[in-house]
Amino acid sequence: MKKWLSEGMGDGFRVLKVLVVVAIPVCILLFHVWNQFRITELGYEVAQQTRDHRELIEERRKLSIEATFQGRSERVLTVAKERFGLEPLEPEQVIQIDETAFGGASEEQASLDLRTRE
Q: Could you tell me the Gene Ontology terms of the biological process aspect for this record (predicted)?
């Protein structure tokens, strides 16, 4: 029985040695594959972020151009006509006020005088 146990332990020890010799390289290989997978995955993420960044820069450029265009006086006139139905003033629509009618009063006093007359 002793002989059988000592022989059995020898076989078990050999099996354990083989498992260790095989398991260590397999673990290293699996770690390497996982590491390469993560590197590739992060590379795709960086590429996506770069695309998003370029798209945002392009959108900012377009918005800047549009803001410049929207601020032009011709554009303001067009929007005033289309959206609000406003038309340019005709000369007969302009009412001129004579300053002397208010006794040489300042603009602030003149506006107050107009309110009191109504």
A: cell division
